[in-house]
Design goal:
89% helix, elongated
């Protein structure tokens, strides 16, 4: 993983962890359900942005390297697996 991608991913994870802790606190305090659901939606969107960042990094580094090394079939199989996971 490229170091810029890693730094950004770790920042996003810290943000997500903070949001999760906040939701736990909200539930513990019996906060209004709609407010909790809005926060869980924000967490889901943050995870989607993290996934997009990681996928972009993978496509720009690992996939390119794998193709240059002659591992096209392996790379295509991995990308198919990722697609299958995403569409479940």
């Amino acid at each position: 993983m490229e170091s810029d991608t890693k730094v950004e991913a770790l920042k996003r994870l810290a943000f997500i962890e903070g949001h999760l802790a906040g939701v736990r606190k909200m539930i513990d305090q019996d906060r209004y359900c709609v407010d909790v659901l809005k926060q869980t939606h924000a967490i889901r969107k943050a995870i989607e942005r993290l996934e997009a960042l990681l996928l972009d990094g993978h496509l720009q580094s690992c996939v390119v390297e794998g193709i240059k090394e002659g591992r096209e079939q392996q790379i295509v199989a991995e990308l198919r697996d990722l697609y299958d996971v995403k569409t479940r």
